[in-house]
Amino acid sequence: MNTTSTTAPAPGFADPTGEGQRVFRAVLDALAHPGRSYRIAGPAQAPKALGTGLAAVALTLFDEEVSVWLHRALAEDPDVTTYLAFHTGARVTNDHGSANFVVATPDTLPALDALALGTDEVPHQSATIVLDARTPGVGARFTATGPGIDGRVEIEAPWAPEGFSAAWSRNGALFPRGVDLLVMSDDSVVALPRTTRLRAVSDQDQEA
Question: Which residues are 199's β-sheet partners?
Fold first, then answer.
């Protein structure tokens, strides 16, 4: 299987330092304030399969020190793999259990407890999920509580895959271990760090 493009990779950031800093700040703010959406701007000419939002995070967070698992459509797209190799140097791996970053759609997201969870001594050595919210999941509404949230906040989550609420609850119970989640559209990021607790909101709850 040939995953190397014969054409030059698409351009990255026009201003790598300035644009990268702004995306990094948006990601940090999102992690500090779970459930809030923060605007990001990615490279306009990113590979179509990757999109500007995923490309922005990749250009900002990926480097030659990290390993990345890509869902199959991305892993088999030579424009994507060439782009990431050229601009970030990150190593693409077939083993989602050891990857530092897991780039998935709702229907390709591996089981959370099958990802790198860190240890009690080095919890930061866990995976960060970068979820492509352009692809819908089964959808859900959650009430979120935890650090960075004033009281509670309701989150609309059309990206939520089947069984996400239960899986996220198990992830939170592992603290300080566990994965963190970045939910990406082409122009925004929402974060759920492992410290965020979610409760599914049903239609009956809404009407009560």
Answer: 143
